[in-house]
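#struct-pred

JT: dropping the chains for the assembly here, can someone run the whole complex?
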Amino acid sequence: MNWGLMLKAAREMWPATLMCGGLLFGVETVMAYVLPTFQAQFSNGMLQIEFVQSLVGAMLGVDASEAMGPQAFMAFPWVHPVVLSLIWAHAMICCTRMPAGEIDRGTIDLTLTLPVTRWTVLRSETIVWIAAGAIVLLSGFAGYMLGRSFVGPDSRPDIGRTLIVLANCFCLYLAVGGLAWCVSACFDRRGPALAVMFMILLASFLLNFLGPFWDVADRLSFLGPLHYYLPMVILRDGVIPWNNLAVLLTVAALLWTAAGIIFNRRDICTV
Amino acid sequence: MSILETESLTRHYGARRGIEAVNLSVREGSLFGFLGPNGAGKTTTIRVLLGLLSPSSGGAKIFGLDCWHQSSQIKHEVGYIPGDVRLHSWLDGNTALKLWGRIRRRDLLPEGRRLADRFSLDLSVKVRKMSRGMRQKLGLILALAHRPRLLILDEPTVTLDPLMQATFLEHLRELASAGHTVFFSSHTLAEVESLCDRVAMIRDGKIVANESLAELRAHAGHEVTIRWREPLAVGIAPPPALSITTREPLLWHGRLDGPLEPFIAWLAGKPVEDLHLGRPDLEALFRHFYAPQDAA
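RK: done, full complex below.
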């Protein structure tokens, strides 16, 4: 770990962190405020339609034909595609910056001719990225809490359960980031690295979404990270999904280690 | 004592040639020129030395340490500047010096400011607002500010104006006289000739010469120009060591390979009006080394 490298990484990551954190704060505030007002009519009306049940079930990862109480309904702000897109975008922006982004810009030449090992570079960048990711998710949490404060006490989700959702979301963020490090370590250009990440995440999202409608997708859904992210179950039952957290963290650690090994062994060509 | 050594250093890019069996030895405190045209393998060699590329075979050592496996240790005492410096656009000179200082764990600001004065660079300007020349100057300052034992320079003066080139080369001479070593890659032959005491030439990935400038010139012979008072009689041929490139009735021009005495003896009694004998400059040496390739 090197303070200079961490400062450099922080300076590079703050615009994306500010943007994603700010947007997530706004989106969560609006959703946490607006959704409870629809909860009753949604549960009594829309959720009686079978197609809507499947659609909601696909989004939340649970059977939506069951009565959906206020607690479970408040899972929406954590699974909405806009929210997931913002969180994943931040992970992708930060984690494809080094080495793919720096090779692309040619700035890695001077970075790697400083007296630091490539592992030190990766570790320093990773520490800053994890801190930046925590800031983004905490911004979302703050927005969620702000929006929640404007609704009636019956519609307010339990803070403890919401924090578990946040932990699950952070583990998902780390897994996506680990994948992004790994992809980034294999590429010389940031554009293709981002494109590959986008394709993988889209496939994962579709796999999870199509699971309830298509058996093949259902059988393969365990391969996608969203399979291990179930905010509605957490908010409804209040249990900590240790297995899911462990899977996501293990995947993140393995992919990050693979990224480090690849980065450490690869040639750096900027010309 | 050699500060930088490569032994049969080879690097291929798949089927494409990079460098082939490059052997170099750079003495501490020397100004070492590394010459070659574009695509000859200069940058590949430098990138292997800096641990950015792994060698396909052979090895490279700086300060006795392996350039691939012990790269980070080596770089404490190495400064590097590429021909086209690319820096983060949000940096300015002061921030860059502070950041580089933190990474190197030493205060680079005093020396950096001194160098900025010498190279006439405003350290408060953001990189995004700098011209290429200004960026190059900042790169030079960042490479020099920690006063490295070894400077590796890859065509560093390409974007500098002539006045700044002169200032920079003067600074390098001062560093060398203070015991620092300079590895200077260039295809600007004049600056290498004016700066370096030893030169290696690389062509098609292979070292074709690795000698002192004096040795190199001696091997390349003499440039000869003879102005005759009257045309020579038909049938008088030049001596075998003299290769004539221009032959007019009253003017011969060519290159003499070999000792001078037989040539002087051959001239005796001939109607010589004027004779010019000189060492070829590096440009001519370079052409000499590239002649077979060019001819092909």
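JT: nice. The mean pLDDT of chain B is 90. Chain B touches chain A through 31 residues (CB under 8 Å).
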